[in-house]
Fold:
Amino acid sequence: MSYPQASYFANNEDDTAKLAKDLAAAVFSQLPADAVIYLNGDLGAGKTTFSRFFIQALGHSGSVKSPTYTLVEPYELESVNIYHFDLYRLADPEELEFMGIRDYFGGGAIALVEWSEKGAEYLASPDLVISINITLSGRQFQIEAKSTQGAALLQQCKCV
Ligand SMILES: Nc1ncnc2c1ncn2[C@@H]1O[C@H](COP(=O)(O)OP(=O)(O)OP(=O)(O)O)[C@@H](O)[C@H]1O
Ligand SMILES: [Mg+2]
Structure:
């Protein structure tokens, strides 16, 4: 079965913020459904930048640091729990089993996952895959729905 996809060009971080806010609004309107979002792209593509705007749009007022060393950073917000993963430094996907990865998915929580390919089969499958490519003038986003719920999210997003 094929699901919809969309593309979006961000000239700068303000444009990334706009996309993140619109996607956060779509996710918010579907709560309490859980959502798993993979963020793909090279080092420095802008995955954490997108995550920061997305998490703040859902009500987090503090900073959002890169979870590169901690693997996961939790945000327990009034509206929803968000788990922001960065698996770049994961040596062996089995480590995810030891950290109780299953408890992070489901239960109405949102998971944002940078470097999902390092987590292999231990991760929940995504509802959306956002791929970011660095171009000369900014960032090209490709957003693919991977589930019925992801398709609904994409349809509701104003930005695409
Ligand atoms: N839309 C954008 N336009 C221009 N620059 C951007 C944009 N988004 C992010 N950047 C810049 O790209 C740099 C790297 O961003 P970020 O840390 O978000 O990347 P990342 O994909 O999370 O990298 P890593 O794989 O190392 O975690 C930052 O300096 C940020 O300011
Ligand atoms: Mg990052």
Observations:
- Residues 10, 12-13, 15-16, 41, 43-49, 66, 86, 114, 138-139 surround adenosine-5'-triphosphate (ligand 1) (CB under 6 Å).
- The helical segments are 13-30, 47-57, 95-98, 148-156.
- The chain has four helices and seven strands.
